[in-house]
């Protein structure tokens, strides 16, 4: 039994046939329903719910969503209060214990400097999750807005925005990092986040542009336009839900690569600095020691995996909830 | 169509000017390269002054840039600090890196799409979960580690391939580095294919195709996959340039003297002719790759037209 | 219509892809091939500068110069003593005017005879500012240098007035000041003789340099490889024991190491620190770890009043005592560094001026004394100290972290010492040159020639060229001047050591450790050794 919806039920569309043919018939029906007219069916709610409230309704019942949300809440909790889980001091290191394996009181062993890997992994969550989540959110927002506009309007808009993206895409990360970040003397994560957004948005904008170019050809969009829907309405209500999937996929994976990118920046001396602890820094330190001390890599990389997994699942669930065809 | 292509090619001119200036400015902002030419010793003031003069570094930025562009327009891309012309460096580095990129892209296209289809058609089943786990490993293990481990296993422990790539760098010798380079992108391609497939599997035309009684493989290949490829193609188009310029780690591990290596050296030594020359060519590669992607949209989805 | 668009679009896309493929495939060429019998395949790095002798100031270019050039003197790879090579004798009565007699019978590998003129022309070329040679300052001791190489403005002379040709095999050198051990500097490659071809066809020479050493270059592919074969006409005593050397450029020492394990290369002269734990097992003991003439120090910016106020020397000494050198060199470097206890290098030998323990307690790890000294000296400026170094080369980050952790553990304060990584070497050098440092910064000193003078005077003499912390001490300068004028070597060394003791008192730079050279080699090689510049002694290597 499909949920009540203000969009056209799939069986109705099936009746019209393939997307290529019968555009006229589909257009009227789709447009009608999309413009908010009551659709025959169970009318549990008199008010027409928006696409987004509808999605939320779905999400709450999706176990994948609930599980991934719980994991994310847990990670955020650690990020805010690391001492809840690990009472030790991540900066307390004894070189005499360099690269020693797990032992009593130190379940994950020690890194090359003799710091406790467990404490550092827990304390690294704050910087890494801040960088990952904020940079991803920033890049995804900027990228999908600019890419979406370029794809939707085409022409000059497209030329200017896309070529701008090309130029930004061409800046080598190391060069950009050295130029933009070495002038910043502070040690907060925000310059790093800003920099990653600056170099990250072109990728997402490409994806968003491609998805919008494909989505705007769909018959229901053409139909809505024919019925006089404005640009904003078309973009937000008709195109966005159909173009958001690839953006979510790319953004959730990018989240992981951004956390790793922070390590690259720190490695060349322009990223986060001690006393800030991060997974990226620990992964990069561990990666040269992989033959002698694989435990150094295992835990921070595992934490990164868990984070990426949670966001990929969350993204999947959100995408499903937004997909009209899955109803 | 023809006019569309011509217009896109003409857009290269402002992009060329903009990116050369931007990169030129950025390398300039890094500071004085001459200080590093003397190792841990203090620079000899007389020699340093003459090197600056020779490289135009004693001029204001805009004069340096105009001088450089004047040279470029006569086909002279300047020289690196080793005395080697940048054009020669590019002629050595780009063919190798293009071959490496082709291997990496083929790898991510073939394996990525196959895994994506496997996961997408069996949504939520073990195949799908396995593909998801592979994605996680690839994302959270740095290229340095995967490259080094694969090199150690295949090259040193089992002796199946030489651990490094000889200077001629033929396609067959680039298989392992290409796989390493393509790993992270593989995660993107796989997830994009899978998601797109899942989304389109419910689309009307697929239902129609199934209803018409078409065989399953034909539905999957001709209808479902083709329509699901737009995000994948977009991603790969953007990735080609990123792979070419970003292969620094892979090129280092396998001793490939390609674009990533030269670019890295150029940046560390703050040699603007090298950096600007290489980045400009890379930006042109992005432009061409994007054009190809946009043309492919029309091939994949006939409703998309280019005016 | 649509179909038309589709196929045309497809065709254009196909054409572009095809073009890319052609470009890619067209780049094939050359061929590395397998191994040539009796040839040593050795790891190499791309030289940073054109391969002119006076323009090469790093070890990779130095390798080539070592293979194809012989100068007046050569440093014995074992003892470090400067022994006569092309010099028949170098004499002086007053430690200022030297007469050099060149041996007969030597030629360049192109047949041209090596004469006194080969040296005088080469040295004049190197010293002239217009030729932009990085090592021009080596000739600064010679009279007339300020004319050919003024600090600013055009040169007023083309040749050094202190150099005079007497006959085919004799020339004289007049120095600006007394410098008794000057002949000992002549083993440095910058002093090599040059053939006429260098001046007449400079570009051609750079593509394939010609010298007078035991090897001659067969081919040189820039950025990837150089092949050299034994020069059978070599007249010197150190003829090559193998048929040739193939130098292969590696961009990462880990990669070279993997190739060594896989049998694709015979000699790697830089074992990555990450492999040090397993190298003996991997290579079955075919591993060398021996001192090289490099010392790493942390310099204090004495131009910053905070570090130069009365009592600050106690803080500086206290910091030196808070660094657990022994633990860092064993845990992080696996003993490829040796804790430093003076400001020179063990390769000098006792006679040459190395004296273990000269620094005394000030270079010994002692947490209690370190805390006391820092407290007595008024504490760290602002309670903080930074350790600055470039991090783009040499994996400096690891020891920087370790040094800071050591200081922090001693002081019981997590944030007393922090690392300040700098992205590029050029930026790091610029900051040093602009005197912009506010805390300790790294200085690696690789000796030019194995003389104690080379470790002390350029780094700690008032206004000396590499005195980056702007240390100045009249007693130190006086002792160095006296030592240079001393004609008896032993007395000169003793006076230099007296000057060095002032460093222990005032601690302008913390000696960290002496750096070793290390190398691994294939089972087919024997007699592999490194010289004190950590360059393999290629000509002595035997290939089975």
From TrEMBL, chain A:
Basic and acidic residues bias spans: 1-14
Source species, domain of life: Bacteria
GO cellular component annotations of the record: plasma membrane
UniProt-annotated location(s): Cell membrane
Bilayer-crossing regions: 64-84, 129-152, 164-183, 243-261, 297-318
GO biological process: transmembrane transport
Pfam (any one): BPD_transp_1
Domain ABC transmembrane type-1: start-end pairs: 125-315
Keywords noted in UniProt: Cell membrane, Membrane, Transmembrane, Transmembrane helix, Transport
InterPro entries: BP-dependent_transpt_permease, MetI-like, MetI-like_sf, OppC_N
Membrane topology recorded in Swiss-Prot or TrEMBL: Multi-pass membrane protein
Region (Disordered): 1-44
Record-stated family: Belongs to the binding-protein-dependent transport system permease family.
Protein name from the UniProt record: Peptide ABC transporter permease
TrEMBL record, chain B:
GO CC terms: plasma membrane
Bilayer-crossing regions: 12-31, 96-118, 130-150, 170-189, 228-254, 274-300
Domain of life: Bacteria
Gene3D superfamilies for this protein: MetI-like
SUPFAM superfamilies: MetI-like
Annotated ranges, domain ABC transmembrane type-1: 94-297
Topological category with respect to the lipid bilayer: Multi-pass membrane protein
Sorted UniProt keywords: Cell membrane, Membrane, Transmembrane, Transmembrane helix, Transport
Xref: Pfam families: BPD_transp_1 (PF00528), BPD_transp_1_N (PF19300)
One GO term of the biological process aspect: transmembrane transport
Coiled coil: none
Subcellular location: Cell membrane
Family indicated by similarity: Belongs to the binding-protein-dependent transport system permease family.
The protein's name: ABC transporter permease
Native organism: Streptomyces caatingaensis
Top-level taxonomy: Bacteria, Bacillati, Actinomycetota, Actinomycetes, Kitasatosporales
């Amino acid at each position: 039994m499909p949920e009540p919806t203000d969009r056209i039920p799939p069986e109705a569309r099936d009746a019209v046939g393939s997307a290529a043919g019968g555009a006229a018939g589909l257009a009227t029906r789709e447009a009608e329903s999309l413009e908010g007219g009551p659709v025959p069916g169970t009318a549990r709610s008199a008010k027409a719910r928006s696409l987004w409230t509808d999605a939320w309704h779905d999400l709450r019942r999706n176990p994948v969503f609930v599980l991934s949300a719980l994991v994310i809440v847990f990670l955020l909790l650690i990020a805010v209060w690391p001492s809840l889980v690990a009472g030790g001091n991540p900066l307390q290191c004894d070189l005499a214990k360099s690269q020693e394996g797990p032992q009593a009181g130190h379940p994950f062993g020690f890194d090359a400097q003799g710091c406790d890997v467990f404490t550092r992994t827990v304390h690294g969550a704050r910087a890494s999750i801040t960088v990952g989540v904020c940079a991803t959110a920033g890049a995804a927002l900027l990228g999908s807005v600019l890419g979406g506009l370029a794809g939707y309007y085409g022409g000059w808009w497209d030329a200017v925005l896309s070529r701008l993206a090309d130029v930004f895409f061409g800046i080598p990360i190391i060069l950009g990092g050295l130029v933009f970040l070495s002038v910043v003397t502070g040690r907060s994560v925000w310059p790093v986040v800003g920099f990653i957004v600056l170099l990250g948005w072109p990728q997402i904008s490409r994806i968003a542009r491609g998805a919008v170019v494909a989505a705007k050809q769909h018959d229901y969009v053409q139909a809505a336009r024919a019925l006089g829907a404005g640009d904003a309405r078309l973009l937000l209500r008709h195109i966005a839900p159909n173009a958001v999937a690839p953006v979510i996929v790319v953004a959730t994976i990018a989240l992981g690569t951004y956390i790793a990118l922070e390590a690259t920046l720190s490695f060349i001396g322009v990223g986060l600095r001690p006393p800030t602890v991060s997974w990226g820094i620990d992964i990069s330190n561990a990666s040269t020691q992989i033959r002698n001390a694989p435990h150094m890599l295992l835990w921070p990389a595992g934490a990164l995996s868990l984070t990426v997994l949670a966001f990929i699942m969350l993204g999947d669930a959100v995408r499903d909830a937004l997909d009209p065809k899955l109803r | 169509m023809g006019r569309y292509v011509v217009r896109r090619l003409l857009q290269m001119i402002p992009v060329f000017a903009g990116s050369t200036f931007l990169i030129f400015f950025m390398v300039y902002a890094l500071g004085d390269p001459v200080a590093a030419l003397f190792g841990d010793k203090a620079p000899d003031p007389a020699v340093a002054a003459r090197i600056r003069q020779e490289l135009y570094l004693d001029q204001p930025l805009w004069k340096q840039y105009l001088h450089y562009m004047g040279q470029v327009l006569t086909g002279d891309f300047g020289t690196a600090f080793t005395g080697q012309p940048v054009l020669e460096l590019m002629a050595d580095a780009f063919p190798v890196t293009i071959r490496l990129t082709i291997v990496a892209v083929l790898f991510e296209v073939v394996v990525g799409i196959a895994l994506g289809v496997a996961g997408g058609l069996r949504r939520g089943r073990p195949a799908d979960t396995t593909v998801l786990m592979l994605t996680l490993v690839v994302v959270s293990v740095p290229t340095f580690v995967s490259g080094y481990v694969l090199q150690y296993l295949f090259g040193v422990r089992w002796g199946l391939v030489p651990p490094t790539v000889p200077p001629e760098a033929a396609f067959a010798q680039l298989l392992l580095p290409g796989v390493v380079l393509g790993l992270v992108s593989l995660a993107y391609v796989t997830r994009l294919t899978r998601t797109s497939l899942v989304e389109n599997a419910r689309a009307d035309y697929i239902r129609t195709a199934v209803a018409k009684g078409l065989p399953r493989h034909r539905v999957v290949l001709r209808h479902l996959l083709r329509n699901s490829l737009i995000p994948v193609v977009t991603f790969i188009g953007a990735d080609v340039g990123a792979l070419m310029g970003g292969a620094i780690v892979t090129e280092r591990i396998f001793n490939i003297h390609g674009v990533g290596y030269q670019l890295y050296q150029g940046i560390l030594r703050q040699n603007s002719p090298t950096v600007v020359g290489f980045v400009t060519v890379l930006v042109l590669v992005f432009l061409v790759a994007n054009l190809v992607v946009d043309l492919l949209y029309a091939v994949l989805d006939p409703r998309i037209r280019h005016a | 219509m649509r179909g038309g668009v589709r196929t045309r679009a497809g065709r254009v896309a196909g054409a572009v892809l095809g073009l890319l493929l052609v470009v890619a495939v067209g780049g094939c060429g050359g061929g590395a091939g397998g191994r040539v019998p009796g040839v040593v395949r050795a790891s190499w790095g791309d030289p940073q500068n054109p391969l002119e002798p006076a323009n090469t100031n790093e070890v990779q270019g130095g390798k080539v110069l070592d293979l194809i050039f012989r100068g007046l003197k050569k440093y014995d790879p074992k003892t470090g003593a400067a022994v006569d090579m092309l010099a028949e004798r170098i004499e002086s009565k007053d430690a200022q005017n030297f007469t050099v007699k060149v041996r007969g019978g030597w030629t360049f590998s192109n047949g041209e005879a090596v004469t006194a003129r080969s040296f005088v022309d080469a040295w004049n070329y190197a010293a002239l500012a217009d030729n932009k040679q990085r090592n021009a300052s080596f000739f600064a001791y010679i009279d007339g240098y300020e004319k050919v190489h003024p600090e600013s403005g055009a040169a007023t002379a083309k040749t050094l007035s202190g150099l005079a040709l007497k006959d085919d095999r004799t020339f004289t050198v007049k120095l600006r000041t007394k410098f008794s051990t000057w002949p000992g500097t002549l083993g440095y490659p910058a002093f090599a003789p040059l053939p006429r071809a260098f001046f007449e066809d400079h570009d051609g020479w750079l593509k394939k340099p010609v010298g007078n050493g035991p090897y001659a270059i067969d081919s040189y592919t820039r950025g990837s490889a150089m092949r050299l074969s034994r020069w059978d006409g070599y007249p010197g005593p150190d003829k090559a024991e193998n048929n040739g050397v193939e130098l292969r450029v590696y961009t990462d020492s880990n990669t070279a190491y993997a190739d060594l394990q896989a049998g694709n290369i015979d000699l790697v002269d830089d074992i990555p620190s990450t492999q040090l734990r397993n190298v003996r097992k991997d290579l079955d003991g075919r591993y060398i770890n021996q001192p090289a003439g490099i010392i790493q120090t942390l310099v204090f910016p004495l131009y910053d009043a905070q570090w130069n106020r009365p009592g600050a020397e106690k803080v500086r000494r206290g910091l030196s005592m808070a660094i657990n050198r022994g633990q860092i060199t064993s845990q992080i470097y696996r003993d490829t560094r040796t804790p430093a206890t003076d400001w020179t290098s063990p390769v000098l030998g006792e006679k040459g001026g190395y004296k273990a323990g000269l620094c005394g307690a000030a270079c010994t790890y002692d947490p209690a004394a370190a805390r006391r000294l820092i407290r007595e000296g008024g504490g760290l400026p602002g309670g903080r100290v930074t350790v600055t170094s470039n991090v783009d080369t040499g994996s400096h980050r690891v020891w920087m972290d370790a040094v800071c952790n050591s200081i922090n553990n001693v002081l019981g304060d997590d944030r007393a010492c922090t690392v300040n990584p700098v992205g590029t070497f050029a930026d790091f050098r610029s900051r040093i040159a602009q005197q912009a440092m506010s805390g300790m910064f790294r200085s690696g000193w690789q000796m030019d020639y194995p003389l104690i003078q080379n470790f002390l005077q350029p780094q700690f003499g008032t206004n000396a060229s590499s005195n980056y912390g702007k240390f100045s001490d009249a007693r130190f300068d006086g002792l160095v001047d006296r030592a240079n004028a001393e004609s008896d070597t032993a007395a000169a060394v003793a006076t230099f050591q007296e000057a060095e003791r002032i460093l222990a008192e005032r601690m302008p730079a913390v000696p960290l450790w002496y750096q070793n050279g290390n190398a691994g080699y294939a089972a087919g090689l024997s007699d592999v050794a490194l010289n004190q510049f950590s360059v393999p002694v290629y000509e002595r290597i035997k290939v089975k």
